[in-house]
Design goal:
12 helices; mainly alpha; about 70% helix
């Protein structure tokens, strides 16, 4: 890589080329598609259970509470994985081909990482590897939340189209509101980007927001499954 670096080694590192730190069309494209990626997981199996009527047999075997818990948990984990794995692959490819140099707050000032746009900016310059893992995990939490939201829509509507499009459309509406207000407070896909294009809520608020969504989706899923089984 030495001939290509041309004296600018700190510009060509895994921590400056990782998709989240290199804000561009591909970054916006990927994070916008998180709701669709997250829906390509276990909730497809729940849809098949509902469509075929197999859910009634499973509930008789294991009970409705266990079915609800297992379906919700595995859907959340599946959404996390389908969101995290592409990000991990992107980082590993850069990590294996570029020099492992820490970003410098002066030399890499062109990145414009500030506390208003990036969580834990101090960690980025002191331990960038941990910072990458933090944002991969945060994206996974966002993906898992969207996956459970899609699961609820499937349960309530029993329509495969809502699985792919429902949470995606809601996310797009939130992104438009964020672009107009310059605040990402109600747009999880935006505050999951390491270099957010609009102002971030506090980290505590972001985690609380995801937790509220998860509790709400869990309640709706529990209601929907019970309605299907007992009616």
């Amino acid at each position: 890589m030495a001939p290509q670096l041309n004296g600018n080694a700190r510009i060509f590192t895994p921590y400056t080329r990782f998709i989240g730190y290199n804000l561009g069309p591909w970054t916006v494209f990927y994070y916008t598609l998180i709701p669709i990626l997250a829906s390509l997981s276990v909730n497809q199996l729940v849809y098949q259970d509902l469509k075929s009527g197999y859910i009634h047999y499973v509930v008789k075997k294991i009970g409705h509470r266990k079915y609800i818990f297992n379906s919700f948990l595995t859907t959340f984990i599946g959404g996390c994985l389908t969101t995290c794995l592409p990000l991990l692959l992107n980082f590993i490819l850069y990590y294996c081909t570029l020099p492992n140099l820490k970003p410098d707050q002066i030399l890499n000032a062109n990145q414009m990482l500030t506390p208003d746009l990036t969580y834990l900016t101090g960690v980025y310059y002191s331990n960038p590897f941990v910072h990458v893992l933090f944002y991969v995990l945060l994206a996974g939490l966002v993906g898992g939340t969207f996956a459970t939201g899609s699961l609820v829509l499937i349960c309530l509507t029993r329509n495969i189209f809502t699985d792919f499009a429902g949470m995606f459309l809601l996310s797009l509406i939130a992104d438009v509101l964020a672009a107009n207000t310059q605040q990402a407070i109600f747009s999880p896909t935006l505050f999951a980007i390491p270099q957010c294009p609009v102002y971030l809520p506090t980290l505590g608020w972001a985690i609380t927001e995801l937790a509220i969504f998860l509790v709400f989706f869990a309640g709706c899923f529990n209601y929907g499954i019970k309605k299907i089984i007992f009616n």
